[in-house]
Specification:
binds zinc ion, 17 strands, globular, about 400 residues, Purple Acid Phosphatase, chain A, domain 2
Length: about 400
């Protein structure tokens, strides 16, 4: 009997243990389900792998800069006459007064200085063969411009001497220039600007020089569009910079949409690795765009930035603007990712009454143009038709 009683108690104990085990296993299953439903990780018991020490990977380093670009700067006689302060001297800085804060606000600012600044010693001249006062260079420097393209159809207007005089002045005031050079050695050196650890390379080309031949043996005087050269220089630029900006002086004058030749050259440049295209020459604004390259890369394209500062007359020819884009660099261990994002645009207008000031378009009044609000709304629709996220600055 004794053994029978003991056996009975043992059975009872086993049954209780089994029930409680079942209960706890059910409970833990429930917990897991709840945790998974809440997208939380199920914590592992520490006792299973006591020797493992958890290490957290270092946080990725994120750097961001803002790059801005403005279009054609064409100094017609109206402009240099208005800027004259006597004694063969000029002051263009008041004309940039209202846009200067926006230009200075960017980390890097690019401009297309279409006319050479050969200075008064060569005799100033206007369309069709320009030579401009050096002081327009000073005004750009003063407004926060960091680099100018001087590869334009007007580069050779006043031949070699005007190019060399210009380069002397750019060097004197510490302004980087690209697209036209003083020697083959100068031409070989790719311009790179580094801000906050992000390096941007600038290369520039023009479709031609208004029928004036580039002097033989002095092909450094201006970079003509040449696919092999563009490809080689993009390759070299990629070696030394995070971002490759290609300035292309191309397209048809006064056409508000890019033509097939522009699209083809842009596609070629992006396929070769260009990250940003800064297009100039049509003297009117063409819509911004994103273009996908053959390796899945994506570039931001400014097909034509229009006239930023010129004596040309006509609503579309007086409109220009400050285009900008954010460049983000993420360093995650060995991995470096560059992203261009958040495109912005400040539309501007060259007011011709009395002062030739460059006016942010949202500040235009009925005294400056007919229906300023309508003009601005039309331009916003035009510029953002392929980039709906484009943000307009005011
Ligand atoms: Zn041009």
């Amino acid at each position: 009997m004794k053994w029978g009683k003991l056996f009975y108690w043992l059975l009872l104990l086993v049954a209780v243990l089994m029930l409680s085990a079942c209960g706890s296993s059910l409970k833990s299953q429930e917990e897991k389900e709840q945790n998974n439903g809440g997208q939380q990780e199920v914590k592992k018991s520490n006792t299973e792998e006591p020797s493992k020490v958890e290490t957290t990977p270092p946080e990725p380093i994120v750097q961001t800069i803002q790059l801005s670009a403005v279009g054609d700067i064409l100094i017609h006689e109206d402009l240099y006459n208005a800027a004259s302060v006597g004694n063969n001297q000029y002051d263009f800085t008041p004309m940039f007064e209202l846009v200067k804060p926006y230009m200075e606000g960017a980390d890097i600012t690019f401009a297309n200085q279409e006319t050479m600044i050969g200075g008064v010693e060569l005799g100033l001249s206007t369309y069709p063969a320009f030579n401009s006062p050096v002081e327009i260079g000073d005004a750009l420097k003063n407004s926060g411009v960091d680099i100018v393209s001087i590869a334009n159809n007007h580069t050779l207007d006043r031949r070699e001497q005007a190019v060399l005089n210009s380069i002397d002045h750019w060097n004197k005031i510490g302004m980087l220039y690209t697209g036209a050079y003083s020697s083959f050695e100068d031409q070989k050196s790719i311009r790179v600007i580094e801000k906050d650890g992000i390096k941007v390379a600038f290369i520039a080309y023009t479709y031609g020089t208004n029928g004036i031949p580039v002097p033989e043996g002095k092909e450094y005087l201006v970079n003509l569009i040449d696919k092999q050269r563009i490809k080689d220089e993009i390759d070299r630029a990629e070696e030394i910079a995070d971002v490759v900006a290609v300035s292309l002086h191309f397209g048809n004058e006064y056409e508000r949409m890019p033509n097939e030749a522009q699209k083809e050259l842009v596609q070629f440049s992006v396929d070769e690795g260009a990250d940003l295209i800064i297009g100039t020459h049509p003297h009117v604004l063409q819509p911004f765009s994103w273009v996908q390259g053959k390796d899945g890369n994506r570039a931001y394209v400014m097909y034509s930035l229009g006239n930023f500062f010129s004596g040309q007359i006509g609503e579309y020819k007086q409109m220009g603007g400050i285009a900008s884009i954010e460049i983000e660099k993420v360093i995650d261990g060995e991995q470096i990712d560059i992203t261009l994002k958040n495109p912005k645009f400040l539309p501007t207008y060259v007011r011709r009454q009395k002062d030739f000031k460059i006016i942010p378009m949202h500040l235009l009044t009925n005294d400056d143009v007919k229906n300023p609000q309508g003009l601005l709304e039309d331009l916003k629709r035009h510029m953002s038709q392929e980039v709906p996220e484009l943000e307009f600055v005011s």
